Amino acid sequence: MTYMVPYSGISNRLGAEEIKAVTDVLSQDTLAMGPAGAEFERRFAELLDARHVQATSSCTTALFLAAQVLGLGPGDEVITTPQTFWVTTWPLQARGCVIKFADIDPDSLNLDPAAIEPLITERTRSIWVVHYGGQAVDMDPVMAIARRHGLSVVEDCAHVAGGTYKGRPLGAIGDIGCFSFHSLKNMTTGEGGAFVTGNDRYAEMARALGTIHVWGEMSERGDPRIGPYRQPAYYRDAHVRRSYTHDYVDGRYLVGNNYRMSELSAALGIVQLGKLDRLNGRRRDIAHRLDAGLRRVPGIGVQNEKPYARHVHHLYTLFYDPETVGAPKDEFIRHLQEREGIEIVIRYFPIHLLPEFRALGHRYGECPVAEKTYFERQIQLPIYDHLTDDQVEHMIGAVSRGVARLAANR
Ligand SMILES: Cc1ncc(COP(=O)(O)O)c(C=O)c1O
Question: Tens digits of per-residue pLDDT, 145-164?
Answer without folding.
Answer: 999 999 999 999 999 999 99
